[in-house]
Every structure is written in C-alpha cells, then in structure tokens.
Amino acid sequence: MFTKVQEARIYAIKKHGSQEYGDGVPYFHHLDDTVDVLIEHGFVDEKYLIGGYLHDTIEDTEATYNKLKELFGVEVAEMVFSVTDPLGTYKNRKDKKRFVYSKIRKNVDGAVLKLADRIANVRRSVKMKSKQLKMYLKEHDSFMTGISTVENTKTCFKLYETYLKLIEEIAKNYGKEKNE
Q: How far apart are CA 1 and CA 21, in angstroms?
C-alpha cells in the first residue's frame, strides 16, 4: 500500500515517461529536487509534497486538472493549476509568465510550489553549468514582482531568502565571468 505522496510520485513519473530535464537527466530528478526543496524549507504537509511531484503534469503531460482533482483532491489540483503555463498561443515567454504569475498571486500554495520549483531549477542549472542561468537572472525582477504578495512573502519567507541568495551568487559569478 502506498501513501498519497508515493502515489503522486509514481503518477508523475509515469506521466512524464521518457521526458528529460536539462541535459539528458531523467525528469524524475527534477521532481525529487523540487520536493527536497520543499522539505528543506519546512513544507512537509502532504499537499505540498504531492504538489511538488505533480507541479509539471498538467503543463507537460496529458494529465488534466480534473484527473488530479479526482486522484489527489481539489487543493492539490488548484495548487498545480496555479503554476501551470497556459495552453494556447502567447507572443512570448514574458507574456505567458505574466499570466501564470497572476494565478500564483491568488494562491499562496502555488507561490510555495513555484519558489521550490525555481530554486530546484536554479540549483540544477548551477550544477550543470546550464545556459538557463542567464534566463533566470534576466527574469528575476519580473518573477519576484510577479508572484509576490504580502501573504505569499510571509508564508514563503525562507524560500524567498534561499532564492534571493542563489540569484545574488549567480549574478556575482556571472559578472566575474563576463569581466574575465
């Protein structure tokens, strides 16, 4: 018998199938990294851990909001939906993210999830020396203003703190590399 968290991990791994993250890493590593960030910052409630595993399923697989709601409950489905990029055509990444950030501002659990996801992304990018780092630096201001509300900042303070330290360090190192 599996716990709901284990079921979510199994479901997400099945849905992501052979997808890769970054430079050829099986996708489940990103899901585990995201959940590890949540645990590291004290977000150990089942809904966060389940959300951590499922956060990309609606966006990147054929999973649906209704299926997540049926299997894991409305609270988890809403959290995952709030961090899901919209379907359809947007002129560019900036417009698409602006839409997602407006959903996250209305769902504090979504802010928790998105910050954990972003921290996991940035850490993996540093580890892999990925070109994504430049994108994360460029998007930093719009990301922070996009997802921040008073409630989100209070709830996610430790996540914000970790994220800001990471970005500061990357900016410092990126500046050094540009000057060398």
A: 29
- Contact status, residue 103 vs residue 110, Cβ threshold 8 Å: yes
Tell me the pLDDT tens digit for each residue of 107-144: 999 999 999 999 999 999 998 888 888 899 999 999 99
Q: Report residue 107 as tokens.
A: 């769902």
Distance CA 94, CA 139 (A): 8
Range list of H helices, the chain: 4-16, 28-40, 46-54, 57-60, 65-72, 74-82, 93-104, 108-128, 132-147, 150-155, 157-179
Distance, CA of 7 to CA of 70 (rounded, Å): 13
61-92: pLDDT as tens digits: 999 999 999 999 999 999 999 999 987 778 88
User: What is the C-alpha separation between 170 and 177, in angstroms, rounded?
Assistant: 10
For each of the domains in the chain, give its residue range(s) and CATH number, in order of start.
Answer: 4-179 (1.10.3210.10)
179 pLDDT higher than 50: no
> Reduced to 3 states, what is the DSSP secondary structure of residue 25?
strand
Give residue 37's Cα distance to chain centre: 10
pLDDT of the residue at 178: 46
Q: What is the 3-state secondary structure (H, E, C) of 116-147?
A: HHHHHHHHHHHHHCCCHHHHHHHHHHHHHHHH
